[in-house]
Amino acid sequence: MLTGKQKRFLRARANRLKPIFQVGKIGVNDNMVEQISEALEKRELIKVSILQNCMEEKDTVASELADGASAELVQIIGNNIVLYKESQENKQITLP
């Protein structure tokens, strides 16, 4: 579980990131969760965009992605979700 200070730190780092995944009409599926999990292992911090045609609620999508990838939900801002997971092999971010 992340502390408030750690979440603020990660939100600041995520501010300049571009979304690398998009959740569309079909919502969250196993393949997407697997790809997001792999991306988190490489990058530790990613942004996911939710498209306008997504049928699911933002909160539902965020919790499904976070649970499926065993990641921490840092923030939901607008139609973007920020996820963090500490990497086992490519550690780049040192949390305060």
UniProtKB/TrEMBL annotation:
GO molecular function, one term: RNA binding
Coiled-coil regions listed in the entry: none
UniProtKB keywords: RNA-binding
Matches recorded under PROSITE patterns: CRM
Superkingdom: Bacteria
SUPFAM superfamilies for the chain: YhbY-like
Domain CRM residue range list: 1-96
Protein name: RNA-binding protein
Source species: Virgibacillus phasianinus
Phylogenetic classification of the source organism: Bacteria, Bacillati, Bacillota, Bacilli, Bacillales
